[in-house]
Design brief:
Elements: E1 2-6, E2 11-16, E3 19-24, E4 27-33, E5 37-42, E6 47-48, H1 50-58, E7 63-66, E8 72-76, H2 79-94, H3 96-122, H4 128-141, H5 150-169, H6 189-211, H7 230-236, H8 240-253, E9 262-264, E10 270-272, H9 274-289, H10 300-317
Parallel strand pairs: 1-5, 2-6, 5-7
Antiparallel strand pairs: 2-3, 3-4, 7-8, 9-10
Helix pairs in contact: 3-4, 3-5, 3-8, 4-5, 6-7, 6-8, 6-10
């Protein structure tokens, strides 16, 4: 069972007997049995025919409609299925033991990813700062299993972020890039590129969370309130280092971007120039669709889909009290 993402301009889905015909710019992309789908996610620039919509509803296959920013604006779904998943999310959130376990899993993987990225570069870049960061991350990681609350976990996460980005700066040419740590809004070009990348990552994660019929608002690590889609921000933590930070480092270390590609605003903040943004779109899509050995032959986009699907299955496996 899989999710069909229909997001590209010119994308079209129509019904042919018990199958969906997937096209792009009037060219056949593939065929898929409706019964093989768990859901369909449709973007603002794509199209799904009315007979296809009827067939999906008859087979209890939910369809989610997103705006151009990746935000959910409506859905056609079996409400009983949606309510059951939301009830499970809420039950896990309200169970302190389960909620803490889920948050621990996220933080553990995030710190592991931070360590792996720095460790990978330490083979060719040997500096005391990098060695110190790796040692400190190990020490912080050992505290996770004994954390008694999500507040404690958030404290560990904050400490690790400072440690990690101290080491991250050692991976850059300090004659070109003057990176002193994470800032939001961006006060230097490196932070501008990271912020831009994380905005793209949020969209990627949000789309997959919706496709897996999870409620974006009910998370376990970040605070739950009406202004923040906590689950999206929770699951983003799994992909910041292995996908976005890795990509940004490659762009900077290969000198695909230079300081001239960034603009300093009147508010003393940095952002990409129009030309640099267009280059990002091209490089980013190529990167997100390419399979990599370190992702077990998956592309970064497929990695996100696989891990969030596994999270959903783990979440649904917990028994409600």
């Amino acid at each position: 069972m899989s999710v069909l993402y229909l997001l590209s301009k010119g994308g079209n889905v129509r019904k042919d007997n018990g199958r969906l015909i997937i096209e792009k710019d009037n060219q056949l992309v593939g065929r898929m049995p409706i019964r093989a789908l768990t859901s369909i996610v449709v973007g603002a620039a794509a199209n799904i025919s009315t007979p296809a919509i009827f067939a999906c509803l008859e087979n209890n296959t939910p369809i989610f409609f997103l705006d151009k920013h990746g935000q959910l604006i409506g859905q056609l779904a079996n409400e009983q299925t949606a309510v059951a998943i939301i009830r499970q999310q809420l039950a896990c959130l309200e169970d302190d033991t389960i909620s803490l376990q889920l948050a621990q899993k996220v933080i553990t993987e995030k710190i592991r990813n931070q360590y792996r990225l720095l460790k990978g570069y330490s083979r060719t870049i040997q500096t005391p700062l990098l060695t110190k960061s790796l040692k400190a991350l190990k020490i912080e990681r050992q505290k996770i299993d004994t954390a008694k609350s999500t507040d404690s976990l958030r404290g560990i996460e904050g400490n690790c972020a400072k440690i990690y980005f101290n080491g991250f700066g050692a991976l850059l040419d300090n004659r070109t890039w003057h990176f002193k740590g994470r800032t939001r809004p961006a006060t230097d070009p490196v932070n501008a590129l990271l912020n831009f990348g994380y905005a793209f990552l949020e969209r990627e994660v949000r789309i997959v969370v919706i496709g897996q019929q999870l409620d974006t608002r009910i998370g376990f690590l970040h605070s739950n309130n009406d202004r923040k889609d906590s689950l999206v921000f929770d699951l983003m933590e799994l992909f910041r280092q292995p996908i976005i930070d890795r990509f940004v480092l490659n762009l900077l270390r290969l000198q695909i971007y230079r300081p001239k590609d960034f603009i300093k605003t009147n508010e003393e903040k940095y952002c990409l120039s129009d030309e640099a943004r267009n280059l990002w779109y091209q490089k980013y899509e190529d990167y997100m669709e390419k399979p990599y050995q370190e992702y077990d032959g998956l592309s970064p986009r497929q990695l996100i889909q696989s891990k969030i699907k596994s999270f959903q299955q783990k979440l649904l496996s917990y028994e409600r009290a």
